[in-house]
Specification:
- By secondary structure, the chain is α/β, with parallel strands linked by helices.
- It has 11 helices and 17 strands.
- It has helices spanning about 40-50, 100, 150-155, 160-170, 185-195, 210-215, 230-235, 250-255, 280, 295-310, 325-330; strands spanning about 1-10, 15-25, 30-40, 65-70, 85, 90, 115, 135, 140-145, 175-180, 200-205, 220-225, 240-245, 260-265, 285-290, 315-320, 340.
- Strands 3, 4, 5, 8, 9, 16 and 17 form a 7-stranded mixed β-sheet that branches. A 6-stranded parallel β-sheet has the order 12-11-10-13-14-15, covered by helices on one side. A two-stranded antiparallel ribbon has the order 1-2.
- Helix 4 (about 160-170) crosses helix 5 (about 185-195) and helix 4 packs across helix 10.
- It is globular and about 60 Å long.
- The two termini are about 20 Å apart.
- Bound molecules: NADP nicotinamide-adenine-dinucleotide phosphate (NAP) and zinc ion (ZN).
- NADP nicotinamide-adenine-dinucleotide phosphate (NAP) binds near residues 162, 184, 249, 268 and 291.
Length: about 350
Amino acid sequence: MVTAKARAVHGPDQNFREAELKRRELDTTDVLIEIKFAGICHSDIHTAHGEWGEVNYPLVPGHEIAGIVTDVGENVTKYKVGDRVGVGCMVDSCGECKNCREGEEQYCLKGNIPTYAGTDKYGEPTQGGYSTHIVVTEEFVLSIPENIGLDEAAPLLCAGITTFSPLNHWNAGPGKKVAVVGMGGLGHMAVKIAHAMGAEVTVLSRTLNKKEDGLKFGAKNYFATSDEATFTELAGTFDLIINTVSAKIDLNAYLSLLALNGSLVNVGAPAEPLEVNAFSLIPHRRSFAGSLIGGIRETQDMLNFCAEHNIAPSIEIISADEIDQAYKRVLDSDVKYRFVIDISTM
Ligand code: NAP
Ligand code: ZN
């Protein structure tokens, strides 16, 4: 059994404190990973603050994990000691239901086992990547391509796959007009990936403050949603809109920007219900949908796609003592564009 150093939060209004985690003995198909970097996702903040429901504290968040394999169970075939690997938002699923068999483990009919704030098959609470080590069954471990640094790989395991999956499913590509709402951690990856897929990308941000970055990431157009003229100018324009906003927004205004048969896909996950007017959908046969991360096979495809297209997140590396400050800055939208914890500072 490995004792990992970690940073845990003990309540919704608490700061992070040093903690220790007992990581389980390796089962036959388990991999022990020494974590090098962990990204900070807004979902970590929603969860740590108890916004999505009751949490069993102490909680160690972190589901954007990159590191090195340091030990393997006797039946492990995919990985060996020294491999560069990643772990995303889930660490297991039933493996038997229709969705799991189709490689959509995130939609496991029995519920996937989240990397933190879940219960594993041994009945133990799962604890995430703000820690020095983690033990994960090999089927839920990803291989990180050589030309992606481990620090830049970490955010791909959630922000990357959460945006790649709907762009892929809704066929973003040449001839398609894609809008990305909110340019934070997920949003900036959506811009880079949609551009690499060949789509024409427009950013819809509250202000024009990040316009230069957006254009550099591959957007062709960049509009401020605080300017009402944006909604008249762009009415009926987009085939696909990816909403990455972490708060409740007026979806009906954004639905009016969809072209005939267009889809607005929500990946942002505010706690409050979102209101959709039937008459925002009916007149142009529009769809409103949601999407949850991506399956393991698709996550590996995303990593390989990013390696091939030289795409990496834009990151700011912080030490383990700076997590509280980073949370505050994410809530203030003062992030360019993902905080990544250097686990060696733990
Ligand atoms: P983030 O870095 O904080 O980015 C969110 C962006 O939304 C901000 O940069 C900001 O963009 C915009 N925004 C924030 N507050 C707003 C408000 N009140 N009104 C309008 N726009 C606002 O967060 P993230 O890590 O990308 O995560 C985004 C959301 O996706 C979170 O709710 C998270 O839980 C969720 N998520 C879902 C999945 C999934 O599988 N579906 C996976 C991961 C995360 P501008 O400054 O450009 O306006
Ligand atoms: Zn996440």
